[in-house]
Amino acid sequence: MPTKRLIAAAALAGALFLSAPLFAEPLAAQANTPAVAPNLMGQLAVFAPAAGLAQSVLPAQLASAAKGDDDDADADGMPSAGVADVVSLANDTSDLRKTLVNLAMRLRDIRYVRGGRDPSTGFDCSGFVRYVFAHAVGLELPTNSASQFLAGLKVNRDEMKPGDLVFFRTAGKRGQGRISHVGIYIANGQFIHSPSRGKTVRVDSLNESYWAQRFAGAKRPDALARS
Questions:
Q1: Whole domain around residue 112: which residue ranges?
Q2: Has 10 been annotated as catalytic?
Q3: Number of structural domains found in the chain
């Protein structure tokens, strides 16, 4: 009799085993997995490719900035030399603006180098402006003339002060196209800049036809807004 009971119990256990869902064991395994694991895997699946893409693009952007995004000023029609007489600053010019202009003037005759950011190697136009502002007033400006044009306050031509930035469209058709050149205003229509390949940092006049036809406007960086 006991033997029959054991046989019946074994048969019942086998039937229960065969009738259980096949996925019961995987679900049990998932139940033992920490709840954070699915979320973590989801984050990796969504964000890892984007992070990898950003890392692959960033070096190219940095390399572009290092080379400089400004064009040489168009040599056609540009004066071969700057102005002979440099005007002095007005007595009411603030010390901050005097510091800017004085440093810029000490950098005259340093050669133009595309992408140049330092007097030891040479300057392009935006590199010259960035160097002067960084070392004179501790202000870091954007890396090229087009982005520098987007920063700061717009200034009317008859309200410009020493140290304001003056911008030009020297690429493409005369007076058209994107912003591609920048200089630092001195006074009385004169500005200092790094013009183009084969030339050096010098002072020019906004009234010269070449620059007058390509003048795009003036901006006042934030550091000068109250001076």
A1: 95-224
A2: no
A3: 2
CA distance 122 to 191: 19
Amino acid identity for residue 171 in this structure: A
Residue pLDDT, tens place only, 126-143: 999 999 999 999 999 999
In a domain, 87, yes or no: no
3-state secondary structure of 158: helix
Claim to verify: residue 38 and residue 104 sit in the same structural domain? no
Residue 125: active-site member: yes
Active-site position among 100, 125, 155, 224? 125
| In-domain check, residue 44 | yes
- The residue whose two tokens read 């019942």 is 12
Confidence of residue 50 (pLDDT cuts 50, 70, 90): very low
Alpha-carbon gap, residue 78 to 54, rounded angstroms: 41
135 is catalytic: no
The pLDDT score that the predictor gives to residue 94 is 92
Cα 34 vs. chain centroid, distance in angstroms?
43
